[in-house]
Every structure is written in structure tokens, then in C-alpha cells.
Amino acid sequence: MTPAAMVPRVNKRGTVRAIISVDFGATSMAAGLVTPDGTVLDLVEEATSAHAGAGVERLLDAVGLLRNRAKARGFRVEGVGVGLPGIVDVDKGMMTGDGGNLVPEFARVPIADRIREATGLPVFVDNDVNAMALAEHRYGAGRDARSLVVLALGTGPGGGVILEGTLVRGRDGYGGEFGHVPVVLDGPSCRCGGHGCMAHYVSGALIAQRARLAVRAHPGSKLVALAGGDPEAITSRLVFEASAAGDGLAAGLVDEACEALAAGLGVILNSLNPDVIVITGGMAAAFLELEAELLRRTARYAFPRVLAGATIRITPSSKRDSVRGGAALFLYESERRRRGGRRQAAATRRKRD
After folding, report:
1. Which of 43, 64, 265, 342 is deepest in the core (most CB within 10 A)?
2. pLDDT for 53-63, tens place per residue?
3. Which of 170, 66, 67, 78 is nearest to 127 (CA)?
4. Mind listing the domains of the chain with CATH numbers?
5. Is 127 in a helix, a strand, or coil?
């Protein structure tokens, strides 16, 4: 029997409408057929790290596969939305290559044009967390909020901001790059060129990397035992697990992560005064266990009234959740450009009059 969440809605003509939605990350890709109301009808997932250098082709293959599946099931595909982990020029439909993106093979590749040529469909591409923020605003924890910030903690942290229903991209697409807010003024250098960035302390990849280096001087750490005796097998998940088990080295890394995240949340709260902050991504589950401590620390950085008025939700997400980002992006951009077209037409009429 088909689960209720998988029952597609149909239009008046009995046709199921779907959007091909792709969430392409540094370690994995999820692509799906998603209805305008956020129902995921089909989902394909695969590791991307195993196909280094072939990401563009893997993405195109996934889009083609889903288009064929939609055709076989009689779905009407309206378009394609893609989220990529880096700075994206939305008008050109490509990743710029700036800002230390996590999939450099996509830099300056006109991915929107490539998909459009292959499918004949309208295509929109944006930063993956911008797409995620649009999905949270349309379907999820930030539904109908006037102001929403999404902070995605994974391989590297990213952010998305929506104010009064408008996605804040900034002039060059850097809007929401909270991972590169400095939280330790004399901290270590970052790949972005800055120092003491929040990313250094809360990124899953960097927490694991710092732990692997640290255990060289502490071979008796529980981390080494949890990793089966191989320091190179240490992951960020094991760091949080060892900390909970009382390991001092791991506890120090987790303490730094909590303090850095609290400081970053203080920056977000004091500068944007948002209604809702959603913390999500692969690292969210680890911080969910520390939610009370995290909020206690955040109170040291944020205005009391601002913190009291905000809803902060830590929501671990699955690929079925994140894949809806591309669909939300497609709908947002379609609506935005229609409005722009109407405004342009109205301005033209006024000039004629």
C-alpha cells in the first residue's frame, strides 16, 4: 500500500505535477521528483565523494533518470531546481568558484544551460542552503514566518536568510555565509581567507580533522578506541560520542564547537532579529543532544529580548527533507520572475501613456 505521504496530488485534469529537485553536496547527492506542495514522489541517492571529478555528469544522469521515471508514470515535469554547495550566480545558473566552494569541479560550469539543453525544461540553480531555506519557509519549520534563518551544519556550515518572504542573496551571492563569521578574533586561518571563522569549530569535517591531529599526542583517548584503533577513522560523530563518555580531549573539542555556535547564533540574532532560526544538516543531531547548553551559552551573546522572541529549532534532516529545496527554489524563482515581468510590463505601459 502506498504511504499517505507518497500519494501524489493531481490537478483538475488528473495530471500529477512534479519538479525535478537536486541537492548536490560535497559527500552525497539526493535527487527527487517533488510536487509543488512538497510531497516527495521519488528519490535517488548516491555518494558523490566516490565520483570525484564526475559530479556534473552524475547530476545530469540523475536528472535524466528522474525525467524518464516521471514520463513512465505519467507525471508532468514543470522544471528543475538544483542546490549546489557554494556561491552561485543565479542569473547565469552556475557556481562562481569564489568563496571556497566544496565541489570545485562545478566552478563556472553553466549547469542550468546544460540541464536545459538536455531536457528542454526551465532550470534554476542556487546555493544549497538558500534552497533549503526556501523549503523550510514553504513546507517546514519556518512556514509563513516573516523572517527565517537556516543554519545548515554539515561538511561545512552554510546559511540562508528569508526576510518578508524574500530570499536575501546579497549583491554577489554571499548572503547568509554565517560559517565565515569570525567568532575567535585570534583564531586559526580559514580557507575563505579569514581567521577564527565559526566553520573551523562547527564543521563536521574540521572537527574530525582536529581530533585526528590531537590524538597523536593523546593515544589513550577514547576516540582512538572508538575508531577501532585507527586515528584516521575518527569522525565528528565519534568525537561527540567520546565526549558524552567522558573523554577529556573530545569534550574540549565539543566545548569549543558549542561556544563557537553560540557566538554565531548571537551574531545572527542581534543583526537580523529573526522570528525563526532552524539549525539543520548532518551535524544537527549532535547539537540536539546539547540544546539546553547551547541556548544557555547563546544567552551570553544575544540581546535577551531578541533571544526570547525567537524560535530556535534544531531539526536533523533526511535527504527526503533536503531534496525539497530544489522544488522550493524552482517555485520561488518562477514566481519572482513572473512578478518582475508584470512590473516591467506595467512600467512599459506607463511610459506609453
Report:
1. 265
2. 788 999 999 99
3. 170
4. 4-127+319-343 (3.30.420.40), 142-314 (3.30.420.40)
5. strand
